[in-house]
């Protein structure tokens, strides 16, 4: 795990032996479960360290996240469309005091998540099977999270409708994005306005050894989301807010 140790230092993180062991166990469990659960196309150890573990930890580049952790260690964090647990579980390994919710709509991945959370003895983790469009209307989850994170889920006009209804006013959405981030953000302007979100910035992320540009899209929730959003399951993807469907390009970036 030399790449992980070295790369984490670039984010100001010095991994403890216990944290390093947790990542090693995580990797071994990914390998064991992947054939039956279809968790990730990336299985080479160095690639997993770089493209999954370190990419997940790039949120520690954000001053807003570090300051929030400092003032409120028990941050409520939602990982939407978590898949194999990225970025939520790596964040939880580093910051065990956060209250983490993992949301995914695939049963096989939910089974893996339950296993790995138990295997790593992670406390304060809630695992939910469901669609974001439905779960976001549940009182326990609506506008309840300090941070909502999402990686390889959808382009920004769609992702904004999935994530912002979960985020409390004054909270943040962090979207992990690739080289098309600027274009996606531009296309999401109408959606952000309708949903109560505001772009703070695109934060470039440097992952040594990864040639594709990476960045974090940081949104802040400035006003409550109207109760009509998110629309019923499937509609945000079919008819993204403010985007002409015929010209919408819905390609996922940096897939799990």
Task: Give the key terms.
single chain, 256 residues, alpha/beta, Rossmann fold, seven-stranded mixed sheet
Description:
There is one protein chain. The protein has helices spanning 2-10, 17-37, 45-57, 63-71, 88-94, 107-119, 132-135, 156-163, 181-187, 189-195, 235-238, and strands at 76-80, 99-104, 125-129, 145-151, 167-177, 197-205, 214-221. With 256 residues, the chain is an alpha/beta fold. It has a single domain (2-247), classed as Vaccinia Virus protein VP39 (Rossmann fold, 3-Layer(aba) Sandwich), CATH 3.40.50. It has a seven-stranded mixed β-sheet with strand order 3-2-1-4-5-7-6, sandwiched between helices. Strand 6 and strand 7 (214-221) form a beta hairpin. The longest helix has 21 residues, at 17-37. The radius of gyration is 17 Å and the shape is globular.
In short:
This protein is of the alpha/beta class and 256 residues long.
String of helices and strands: HHHHEHEHEHEHEHHEEH
The value of Rg in angstroms is 17 Å
Number of domain modules: 1
The count of strands amounts to 7
The CATH architecture term is 3-Layer(aba) Sandwich
Number of helices: 11
Query: What is the percent of helical residues?
Result: 25-40%
Average pLDDT, rounded to a whole number, is 94
The H-level CATH homologous superfamily, spelled out, is: Vaccinia Virus protein VP39
End-to-end C-alpha gap: 19 Å
And the CATH topology?
Rossmann fold
CATH class: Alpha Beta
């Amino acid at each position: 795990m030399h790449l992980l140790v070295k790369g984490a230092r670039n984010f100001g993180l010095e991994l403890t032996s216990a944290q390093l062991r947790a990542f090693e166990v995580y990797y071994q469990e990914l390998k064991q479960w992947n054939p039956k659960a279809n968790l990730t196309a990336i299985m080479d150890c160095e690639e997993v360290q770089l493209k999954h573990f370190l990419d997940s930890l790039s949120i520690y580049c954000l001053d807003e996240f570090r300051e929030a952790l400092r003032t409120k260690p028990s941050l409520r964090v939602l990982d939407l469309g978590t898949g194999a647990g990225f970025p939520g579980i790596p964040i939880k390994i580093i910051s065990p005091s956060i209250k983490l919710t993992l949301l995914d709509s695939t049963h096989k991945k939910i089974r893996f998540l339950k296993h790995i959370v138990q295997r790593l003895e992670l406390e304060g983790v809630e695992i939910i099977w469901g669609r974001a469009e439905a779960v976001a209307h549940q009182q326990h989850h609506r506008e309840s999270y300090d941070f909502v994170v999402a990686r390889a889920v959808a382009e920004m006009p769609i992702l904004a409708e999935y994530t912002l209804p979960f985020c409390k006013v004054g909270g943040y959405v962090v979207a992990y994005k690739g080289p098309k981030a600027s274009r996606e953000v531009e296309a999401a302007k109408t959606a952000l306005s309708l949903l109560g979100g505001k772009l703070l910035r695109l934060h470039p992320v440097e992952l040594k050894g990864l040639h594709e540009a990476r960045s974090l899209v940081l949104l802040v929730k400035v006003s409550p989301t109207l109760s009509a959003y998110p629309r019923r399951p499937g509609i945000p993807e079919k008819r993204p807010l403010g985007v002409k469907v015929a010209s919408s390009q819905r390609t996922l970036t940096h897939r799990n």
